[in-house]
Design goal:
239 residues, alpha/beta, Rossmann fold
């Protein structure tokens, strides 16, 4: 099996709070892995450790076959990151942000192709801060794709978007998925996770409760009418 991410018994605490408590997980090349859990469950911290934005207190993290603790710079050239809030200069236009991020990488994807795929052409000369939430999210996704990453990390990419904007953003994400890219994302929208994710990891109180295909998770409830929403309530929230 070709794994692009392997984490083994990672732990991260903030004082007495165990944000991540011994999670082990393997991510396959070309899959869409969803991470779900209640607020404060440890989803974002787990993602940030895989991205190299936070150091675990203990445990091992391998990304693209490299040890994250010793090869962080090489790994960052080959992954893309979209955070919930992408901090940019107040007075920066979309095209300026794209060119700035492009300058950070040795290898880049064709900028015109990214702009066309995400429909950003009419907004290139607009200030990012003046865009609607949906177009800010598209711009943020474009920035995460500039270096043609082998793995894209998306932290709640559709939060706050209206249903149409969510649908359009998923259309963009799925175009890159079809190229065999690996996508790891957190979401609170169970309908999205059920429809688009190959596997779903459920995190509760810093622990990995389960990781399986949506259908297998739903079948585990023994209710033919169950949905992933029921799985979430049972495993991520229930006692």
């Amino acid at each position: 099996m070709n794994f692009v991410i392997e984490i083994n018994d990672i732990k991260k605490s903030y004082g007495s709070v165990k944000a991540v408590d011994g999670i082990s997980l393997q991510v396959k090349r070309g899959e869409v892995l969803g991470i779900i859990g209640a607020n404060g469950a440890g989803k974002s911290t787990t993602l940030e450790i895989m991205m190299g934005l936070r150091q675990p207190d203990s445990g091992e993290v391998k990304v693209l076959g490299m040890d994250l603790s010793t090869s962080a710079e090489q790994i960052k050239q080959r992954i893309g990151i979209q955070l919930q809030q992408t901090a940019l200069y107040d007075r920066i236009k979309v095209k300026e942000a794209l060119n700035l991020f492009r300058s950070y990488y040795a290898n880049t994807r064709d900028l015109n192709e990214i702009v066309a795929t995400l429909g950003l052409e009419p907004y290139l000369n607009k200030y990012v801060k003046n865009l609607s939430g949906g177009w800010q999210q598209r711009t943020s996704l474009a920035l995460a794709l500039i270096n043609d990453p082998e793995i894209s990390f998306l932290d709640e990419p559709t939060t706050g978007l209206d249903p149409q904007a969510r649908l359009e953003l998923w259309g963009c994400i799925n175009r890159y998925r079809e190229e065999g890219k690996t996508i790891i994302l957190s979401t609170h929208y169970m309908d999205e996770a059920q429809k688009h994710c190959d596997r779903i990891a459920i995190i509760k109180k810093g622990k990995l409760i389960s990781c399986d295909e949506p259908k297998q998770l739903i079948d585990s409830l023994g209710n033919q009418e169950a949905t992933l929403e029921d799985v979430y309530l049972q495993y991520a929230v229930g006692n």
